[in-house]
Amino acid sequence: MPAYVIAEVDIHDPETYARYRARTPELVARHGGRFLVRGGPAELLEGEVPPRRVVVIAFDDMEAARRFYHSPEYREIAALRQEAARTRMILVEGVAEES
Length: 99
Prior knowledge:
The chain starts with a strand and ends in a 6-residue tail after the last strand. It has helices at residues 14-30, 62-70, 72-84, and strands at residues 3-11, 34-38, 53-59, 85-93. The model has no long low-confidence stretch (mean pLDDT 94). Helix 1 runs antiparallel to helix 3 (72-84). It has 3 helices and 4 strands; from the N terminus they run E-H-E-E-H-H-E.
């Protein structure tokens, strides 16, 4: 089943975050992922605090997403994100497409 990495990001160091952002697409693609949402306008429908930036990455399954997240290459650039922003990131399993 498909899986999704969903991140809410509050950036406090735009220059360092830009370095992280520049390196991420190629690595995501190499692990079979694709961006569905990458920080476009967001509208709060419920809750209290709107996220500054939302990112959604689709993978073929949970294991592919885990391989991406735990890969040495991503761990290296994740340090840039952690330095530049506060992030809440979750991995969720999607539903099978109906035929």
